[in-house]
Write a structure and sequence with these properties.
Radius of gyration: 23 Å
Number of domains: 2
CATH class of the largest domain: Mainly Alpha
Strand order of the largest sheet: 1-2
Largest sheet: 2 strands, antiparallel
Distance between the termini: 16 Å
Strand content: under 5%
Structural class: mainly alpha
Number of helices: 10
Order of helices and strands: HHHEEHHHHHHH
Helix content: 55-70%
Number of strands: 2
CATH topology of the largest domain: Four Helix Bundle (Hemerythrin (Met), subunit A)
Length: 267
């Protein structure tokens, strides 16, 4: 159990027009700066009231704002209090899926964006000065694991193959691009996992011979990153992503709307 925070949350009395917004803003900034750690418990209500010098209704409104933003989780009952929840890429993916759903965006639109962004991530990986000791080393370990599972557990193989793509994105060196691409990838990944489970359960998952070309493409991409060939790795990754999407969405599911419920929300 996390102990209550002892860090001072307030810088003194707050006087702006919207007290609750100002209080929420101060606590939000402390969370985003990491001064309040993930899972850390905020002081009890009485302590917050003393630090900020406001009424209980105002403080509760500020906490409601933070809870609506997903930055805290208010616990009711005998324990009570609020736990800090730092934003995560999973939360971003879920929020993005909500927005896309509200706009009536279909899965084909997401897949098209991903087919543009993932090759860009591969390009950036090929331009990293330390790529051989970082991203290349990690991708080769994943490729070896995929080969070891070639004739093994189908779902384990599928997870290892998808890890290649997530690693390619997460090691590109650009925080904004990896967050955006990773969020879109999470939306598509839900469908990949659904496809894998369904085909495996019905005995239709690709055979070892059919899986091998995908591993070889991953190895080709890895070699191109190692060589620093940014142009060729973009072309190869673009074609690979499109082929993979066609495999998964071959039945026409690309016309379905984005479903936020299939995207795992960060805890």
């Amino acid at each position: 159990m996390h102990s209550p925070s002892t860090a001072p949350l307030s810088e003194g009395p707050v006087q702006p027009h919207r007290l609750a917004d100002a209080i929420a803003g101060r606590i939000r900034e402390l969370i985003l700066l990491g001064e309040l750690k993930d899972g850390e418990r905020l002081p009890p209500l009485e302590g917050l009231l003393k630090q900020f010098g406001v009424s209980a209704p105002t403080m509760r409104e500020a906490l409601r704002i933070l809870e609506a933003e997903g930055l805290i989780k208010v616990q009711r009952g005998s324990i009570g209090g609020a736990l800090v929840r730092r934003p995560t890429p999973q939360m971003a993916a879920y929020t993005l899926a909500l927005v896309l759903r509200s706009q009536g965006t279909d899965k084909g639109d997401v897949a098209a964006a991903l087919s543009l962004l993932e090759p860009l991530c591969a390009t950036l990986c090929a331009r990293l000065s330390n790529r051989k000791s970082t991203v290349v080393r990690e991708l080769r370990k994943i490729n070896s694991a995929s080969r070891a599972l070639l004739e093994g557990d189908e779902l384990a193989f599928n997870e290892t193959m998808t890890r290649f793509h997530t690693t390619l994105v997460q090691r590109c060196g650009n925080d904004t691009l990896k967050l955006l691409t990773g969020a879109l990838g999470s939306i598509c990944m839900a469908d990949v996992r659904t496809w894998a489970k369904s085909t495996s359960a019905h005995g239709h998952y690709p055979t070892a011979a059919e899986r091998l070309p995908s591993i070889e493409i991953h190895e080709r991409i890895t070699d191109l990153i190692h060589a620093g060939d940014a142009v060729e790795v973009a072309a190869v990754t673009t074609e690979h992503v499109k082929v993979t999407q066609k495999y998964v969405y071959g039945g026409g599911d690309l016309t379905a709307l984005v479903d936020p419920h299939t995207v795992q929300r960060g805890k």
